[in-house]
Amino acid sequence: MTRDELKAEMLRHLQYSFGKDPAHAQVRDWRMALSMAVRDRIVEPWFAATRATYSGQHKRVYYLSLEFLIGRLLEDAIVNLGLGQAAREACAALDLDFEAVMTDEPDAALGNGGLGRLAACFLDSLSTLSIPAHGYGIRYEHGLFKQSFHEGRQVEQAEDWLNQPHAWEFERAESSYEIGFWGEVEEKDGRAIWHPGDAVLARAYDTPVIGWQGRWANTLRLWGAKPTKLFDLARFNTGDFTAAAQPEEAARTISRVLYPDDTTDAGRELRLKQEYFFAAASIRDILRRYTSEYDDIRRLPHKVAIQLNDTHPAIAGPELVRILHDEHGLAFDEAVQIASATLNYTNHTLLPEALERWSEGLMRHLLPRHMRLIEQIDDWHARTTKGRTLSAIDQGSVKMGELSFMLANRVNGVSALHTGLMKKTVFAELDRLHPDRIVNQTNGVTPRRWLLACNPGLSGLVTETIGTGWEDDLERLGQLDPHVSDAGFRARFAAVKRANKAHLSDWIGREMGISVDPDAMFDVQIKRIHEYKRQLMNVLDVIATWHAMRGEPGLDWVPRVKIFGGKAAPGYQTAKEIIRLINDVATVVNSDPAIGDRLKVVYPPNYNVSMAERLIPAADLSEQISTAGKEASGTGNMKFALNGAPTIGTLDGANVEIRERVGAGNFFLFGLTAEEAMARREVPDHAGRAIAASPELAQAIAHLERGTFSPGEPDRYRHLAQILRHHDYFLVCSDFAAYHAKQRAVDAVFRDRDAWVAMAARNTARSGWFSSDRTIRSYAAEIWDVTPVEVGPGACVLAS
Ligand code: 26V
């Protein structure tokens, strides 16, 4: 598509799709016009992919996830369709600021963090690999809350992305299912019939997901909740308008917000309703598609593979058993066998507080038939494995991990270390009963978004050096390795990073009013705020460094910009205290004349996918410092390495595999191993001992207790100090000295710029394995038993 064609299409959409006169169009109108012009190019490959799947009777993959953290879609579509240059030029010809048009799009923030972003990368790779697939989720009216800071404290506001037309979705009013809740189960002639007490409609909204070079497109189908009946006209006519609208309100509540607060009974009930609502609608849709093509429901596993992204969709298991047994009339055991040959489950965390459990009472009340089936599945498992000591029902609650395991063909962890720990800890007993069921699938990230699109400077250099083709064959980055010993290449690599940093400095100056030196080291920690991720250890190191700088202002310090980004769960008080501390430390450090440009702390509010795309290409150092054994994988760690930022990190999650691949000499390792961490927790007063052994740590904690960063309120950080001294479960104190020392080793290498650049470039050259294409190929071969549909260039568009 040429510049002129695209421009003409934009003008056509502006006028005839949106009824806007170009003379009065705003950035939003132009952005919508460009989106429509680009979307038109997706529709044909999308239809062709669907037709090819039907005509070839290919097996399909269904990825069920309560979260899809997809971010912006316009640039992604432009990049995948190779329309970058045409789009830039068309905008220029229309006198539009291309960057402003692209950044006008709101992020689709339908996820909390890593789990949801992984689902989005997987959709991209499934399409790129032409694997017939659907993502299924909820069309939340409000995505992840908007974060702002008031006097350093996190403030949450409702996010409102659907307040404006959504450029990429197609509403499918004809694809609606009635989803029941509550009610009774009637036993009749040996059969169970569930009579739900209430119901809502699940309506489909489809977003096409275009793969690399537009060869294939899959569908992300999100469910919106609607009332089964229109509003109550009789009530309305009596003047009770609020009551008349009540059924609609009640139904809409189900798809209103991502992760409703589950600290109350009402919140928990809503969350379980969301889970069943979307799982049931998806199962119904999958079976409708299957039965439209095939007669024998027993062959379902030959044509369908369902992946459960964590236990959030786990109720899909009992629902599938219910439909096969109660509605299709299969014997219970056969229904369970077919369901468990179709379903697979990915575990994303071992943290006990994050493993889902539902009270039996709530489950029986909301889903009476399912609770009965869960008991039968539990019995069936005991009967068929002789594992009688093991149950998915424990002390009045249903353990969704165990239930998902029992009903799965394969269960996977998301990094080698995490999978090993799954086998040793939470699923030890189940692993013994089913020794081949647990497999590892180390996470990956899409190189289209996380290198090609977000870092044009580096991707340009890569292409100039090794040619194109790396975008969907990322291991080809290995061909950069020999170039790293070439001083010319290193200089160009350094120049790209410098330009990215200058660009970020400008943004930080504009957005935050903080001036940062692009030649300082950009040290970045971006992720959810959680004690196990140890942002607290990072900020303690900032305090220790600041203290040391003040003590010896004459020393030749390596200038650093410490960048933080991330949100805390609204009810997680300790995480919120850590946020406030980072902001308070920033206030003191950034205005300290004794420090000047040598240390800055920057914490831009409302970290999201788009901010990650801005920060990662400009990072020098990647902070991956979780307590070993606690971070299942991490995916940010991979994005940084790919973009030429070496890691300072622990042997946790995928850090282990990153270090193996980039080489120990290109990774700053510190800290206890997972095994050592477990042992250390048993040592009496481990924190006290560590504090006594590290004057820097003792001093930093003393600053917290003295109120150095909370003038006038010395008690503000007492609680954090108490945690460090007496309840240091995440071993911040035990790892601090090693971390602090390793940061000085980082300084030393950074001082030797050439050595640093070589290290950074080797990170890029050796990160090819962390493409989500590799991960998806591996799921396809080891879990789903599917193969890509063959499509030549353009073949998909021509297919009939
Ligand atoms: C959830 C919760 C919920 C309530 C209390 C505290 C808490 C802590 C952690 C979580 C995480 C839930 C699952 C999750 O998002 N896991 C992330 O999945 C990523 C993709 O596999 C992986 O890279 C991250 O390491 C892992 O934390």
UniProtKB/TrEMBL annotation:
It is found in: Cytoplasm. One of its GO terms (biological process) is glycogen catabolic process. CDD domains: GT35_Glycogen_Phosphorylase (cd04300). PROSITE patterns: PHOSPHORYLASE. GO terms for cellular component: cytoplasm. Its EC number is 2.4.1.1. It is an enzyme of class 2 (transferase). GO terms for molecular function: glycogen phosphorylase activity; pyridoxal phosphate binding. It holds the Pfam family Phosphorylase. Keywords: Allosteric enzyme, Carbohydrate metabolism, Cytoplasm, Glycosyltransferase, Pyridoxal phosphate, Transferase. It catalyses: [(1->4)-alpha-D-glucosyl](n) + phosphate = [(1->4)-alpha-D-glucosyl](n-1) + alpha-D-glucose 1-phosphate. The modification N6-(pyridoxal phosphate)lysine is found at K639. Its cofactor is pyridoxal 5'-phosphate. Belongs to the glycogen phosphorylase family. Allosteric enzyme that catalyzes the rate-limiting step in glycogen catabolism, the phosphorolytic cleavage of glycogen to produce glucose-1-phosphate, and plays a central role in maintaining cellular and organismal glucose homeostasis. Phosphorylase is an important allosteric enzyme in carbohydrate metabolism. Enzymes from different sources differ in their regulatory mechanisms and in their natural substrates. However, all known phosphorylases share catalytic and structural properties. This is Alpha-1,4 glucan phosphorylase. It comes from Halovulum dunhuangense. The lineage of its organism: Bacteria, Pseudomonadati, Pseudomonadota, Alphaproteobacteria, Rhodobacterales.
